[in-house]
Amino acid sequence: TDQPLVLGIETSCDETGIGLVRGHTLLADTVASSVEEHARFGGVVPEVASRAHLEAMAPTVERALEKAGVRFSDIDAVAVTAGPGLAGALLVGVAAAKAYALGLGVPLYGVNHLAAHVAVDQLEHGPLPKPCIAMLVSGGHSSLLLVPDVAGDLTSLGSTVDDAAGEAFDKVARVLGLPFPGGPHIDRAARSGSGTAIAFPRGKYDDGTLDFSFSGLKTAVARWVEAREREGHTVSVPDVAASFQEAVVDVLTRKALQACRHHGVKDLLIGGGVAANSRLRALAQERCDTAGVRLRVPRPGLCTDNGAMVAALGSELVTTGAPPSSLTIPADSSLP
Ligand code: KG4
Ligand code: ZN
Questions:
Q1: What is the CA(41)–ligand 2 centre distance, in A?
Q2: How far does residue 187's CA lie from ligand 1's centre (Å)?
Q3: For ligand 1, is residue 273 a contact (CB within 6 Å)?
Q4: Same domain, yes or no, for 200 and 108?
Q5: What's the rounded Cα separation, in Å, for the pair 216 and 333?
């Protein structure tokens, strides 16, 4: 209990995530999601997300305190996602964090959402090896990062030139008539299909960069389904799902291991919502074993957006003596 208690607030998309962390110990991780309000639109509606954050903020913080068995006055620091994300959604979290920090008289830490996706792994697997390679794959980003130190600056080694991996899952799910967000539904459907049934294209597979491209794949799947239906054939949803998923995870794991090799790094971390994918986890493990690379993937609940990840990074910043943010920090939707 002599380590500082950090409150983490995450509102970059449609999840109001509140986390309470002491050192590397997770005390509470409470998430209120507005995903059902967005489902009928087939994507997140920013205005709806902002309003939902505003309504969920105070009750979700109180639920987290109750769960952790602590009081407001026990909080030693407040961390919040300052960006990147939806501007209006971020603003709600940043404003709330400033109010809590000011009211409690504790320091405020504005953090980068991607760095928080990396830091969360420490809650489950202990201190991250330095350096490590992190692959972040979610609905908003697909990036390979060199992580010299969780509390330090991350270097981008490559990222998607068009759609994010999760975005491709969501769009292909829509083509297959599966609900939003589509990733978990494709994952489930793929279990009864064959990943080699259809040879879908693997964008940028051999281009020598650490960048990704998923929009050609998404279009290829849509064209394939349309053509089959036009010819009067039935489409096997499990086979299309499995073959599409195989194309995505083949490229992701190939490039992640290339990054490890190029930089002589033996530790790979995978995070973000798509890291919950069962086939990605299995293939990454297989290829890491072959390459002699140690793999770390947080449990699925810590891969998707949550407040624990923000509290985890905040805790790291407090412990390493990083300077707090000013109470005037902006929400920065395009933070690199
Ligand atoms: O990290 P996250 O919760 O939010 C963003 O920052 O975007 O990621 C959400 C994304 C969605 O595109 C969702 O379809 C995808 O992660 N996702 C999955 C799985 N679970 C969530 N994609 C593939 N397989 C899954 N099991
Ligand atoms: Zn995220």
A1: 20
A2: 11
A3: yes
A4: no
A5: 27
Give tens-digit pLDDT for 182-240.
Answer: 999 999 999 999 999 999 999 999 999 999 999 999 999 999 999 999 999 999 999 99
**Residue 334: φ, ψ to 5°:** -110, 25
Domain with 158, as residue range(s), is: 127-299
Q: Ligand 1 in contact with 139 (CB < 6 A)? A: yes
Would you give the end-to-end CA distance of the chain in angstroms?
A: 35
pLDDT in tens, 117-173: 999 999 999 999 999 999 999 998 899 999 999 998 899 999 999 999 999 999 999
**Backbone Cα Rg of the chain:** 20
Q: Ligand 1: which of 33, 35, 120, 169 to mutate, judged by most atoms within 8 Å of the beta carbon?
A: 169
In the chain, the number of structural domains is 2
* Same domain flag for 312 and 280: no
Where would I find the H helices in the chain? 35-39, 46-68, 87-104, 113-119, 121-125, 165-175, 183-190, 215-230, 237-263, 278-291, 300-303, 308-319
Which one of the ligands is nearest to 309 CA?
2
> Same domain for 265 and 315?
no
pLDDT confidence of 42, banded at 50, 70, 90? confident
* Inter-helix orientation angle 46-68/87-104, to 10°: 30
Counting every residue written for the chain, the total comes to 336
Give this prediction's pTM: 0.94
CA angle 302, 265, 202 (to 5 degrees): 70
pLDDT in tens, 274-295: 999 999 999 999 999 999 999 9
What interface predicted TM-score (ipTM) does this complex get?
0.98
* Domain annotation covers residue 328: no
Nearest CA among 79, 2, 112 for reference residue 314: 79
pLDDT exceeds cutoff 70 at 309: yes
Q: Is 170 annotated for ligand binding?
A: yes
- Return the ligand 1 atom nearest residue 117 CA: 1
CATH assignment at residue 266: 3.30.420.40
The answer to whether residue 334 is domain-embedded is: no
- Does residue 149 sit in the same domain as residue 16? no
Could you say which ligand is closest to the alpha carbon of residue 164?
1
